[in-house]
Amino acid sequence: MSTSARIDRVITTGLIGAGRPGFPPEGVALENNVWLVGDDSEVLVIDAAHDAEAIVAGVGDRDVLGILLTHGHEDHVNAAVAAARRLDTHLYLHPADLFLWEQTHGDTPPDFELEDGASFLVAGIDLTTVHTPGHTPGSVCFVAPALDTVFSGDTLFQGGPGATRWEYSSFPQIVESIRTRLFTLPAAMTAQPGHGASTTIGAESPALASWLARGW
């Protein structure tokens, strides 16, 4: 399929966990990927981490059709409200992660609930929401077949699944999400995660047995 749609990456850095138990008083620095999917006229933003001004600059003068959030963790949503206001757009989050969102934004809600299978059209291509619980209950990925890409949030990284160290997380569940929802995608499809370098479905799927053996 010929398309003018493209993927841009904005890397943002910020502090998370400031003042919270288990973190140093000033917080911990963390680098995130913010993905922009669209063309020269319109774009969807995937995650809104740390720095609303950097996201606004990456968007430029394009029309923003929405900010799609892969999950509710602080480092993926802490710039969401400010960015949405600056860009005059809506925020989408899976309802199972609303409790995490509220830890950062209190009673300021996202605009819309994401559901499994929800589709978004931008620059003539579709992004489809895939619910992939495990890292958090409401973790999702966004699949863009026309770009041979899945935006995998903190569900799948180069080298394995996302962390499952919290009481609301589940290693068996994240493995099942990856096995049944992501590893059924084409092997050549690129996975663009919430942090770090990209990988492919084919590069990660042979390691499933080793992940199960190590337990993380």
TrEMBL record:
It holds the Pfam family Lactamase_B. Residues 31-195 form the Metallo-beta-lactamase domain. InterPro entries: MBL_Glyoxalase_II, Metallo-B-lactamas, RibonucZ/Hydroxyglut_hydro. This is MBL fold metallo-hydrolase. It comes from Leucobacter rhizosphaerae.
